[in-house]
Known about the structure:
- The chain starts with a helix and ends in a 10-residue tail after the last strand.
- The strands form two sheets. It has a six-stranded parallel β-sheet with strand order 1-9-8-5-2-3, with helices on one face.
- It has a single domain, classed as 3-Layer(aba) Sandwich (Rossmann fold).
- It contains seven helices and nine strands; from the N terminus they run αβαβαββααβββαβαβ.
- The longest helix is centred in the first third of the chain and has 23 residues, at 20-42.
- Helices cover 30% and strands 18% of the residues.
- The chain has helices at residues 2-9, 20-42, 55-64, 94-100, 123-133, 185-190, 204-212, and strands at residues 13-17, 45-49, 76-80, 82-84, 140-144, 168-172, 179-183, 193-198, 229-233.
- Helix 2 crosses helix 3 (55-64).
- Residues 1-8 have low confidence and may be disordered.
- The protein binds 6-phosphogluconic acid.
- 6-phosphogluconic acid binds next to loops.
Amino acid sequence: MVAARARAVNRPALMVVADLRALARRAAERIVESVRRAVAARGASAVALAGGETPRPVYETLAASALAGAVPWGAVDWYFADERAVPADDPESNHRMVRETLLASRPEALARLHRMPADADDAEAAAAEYARLLPDPLDLVVLGMGEDGHTASLFPGSPALDVRAARVVPVMGPSVPFRRMTITPPVIDSAREVLVLVAGAGKAETLARVLGGPLDVRALPAQLALRGTWIVDAAAARLLGGG
Ligand code: 6PG
């Protein structure tokens, strides 16, 4: 019974698409749909963006396609689900990645791209300040998943997984750059929409555990996003049961 319950709980809205190109297109469409829905309902949209490599073609596709014309850019504020403790022009910076993709041809929107100050000297104070800036709830949180099952910068076994009072905290990750800053589980729980993007054969085993295995958020923090919509490519979905 437990397995069935776990399986029942682990069944998010799942879209399996052919490849990264298809994932980029479908995810870009979902982001635009979500932003338009929020602006139609409340006059504004607050989106927290994932970093890393998977979202790069998503943001490029959104910015370069006809989809961009459907985005009410003046009503959207862009935030970050996490950031590395590096300067804004560092190649490892998620803020730099978003500047170079989503907003590459929209410098006027940069004023609405709110950098997460992970490299601040007083990281605790900077995290608290960013949390005050971060709308509650967010309209959309875009997340990825690491091969170790992390999401944002919520890594397996991290004390940040138990944080309920703070919405943004500084953390130490397992790989360079070690110092990071991340949203905490309550921010994912309260978001109006959650979108998770996973691509590549290297993630197939972890994805199968996250979506089909027992609930164990401490080991697989990406399970915090099971309530969301998961867009995954066929390579990452290779080990998912059909049933
Ligand atoms: C980051 C991301 C991180 C990412 C996963 C997957 O800052 O690195 O926010 O959580 O989503 O590590 O990264 P890839 O998309 O590069 O595989």
